[in-house]
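As the next step, I selected for study one protein, both as residues and as discrete backbone shape codes, as given directly below:
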Amino acid sequence: MRTKLLLSGIAVLFLATGTAQAREPCDTLHTSDTRGIWRCGDVCVRVFGNAPNRYVTFDGVDNVVQFKWKNREASLNGKRCKFLPQSYEYDQESK
């Protein structure tokens, strides 16, 4: 009985790590309006526009969040986000 419990615990661990790696990458394609792109866990955050008319999009969020941004540093719900460099169409064509 103890062996079955241990094996089922290991199987759950593999399932959890497999789903964590399956997230989709953020779209980093440059637009003239893009001001920044961040990966915050499983959430992609994009800031567009010029002050004072900026707007923010969140991909992968179903509830209310707190997003803070200053220069290239950002946080979502108190956790630091990773800044992603923008990609350009001519970079993708040469690969």
Notes: The longest strand covers residues 34-40.
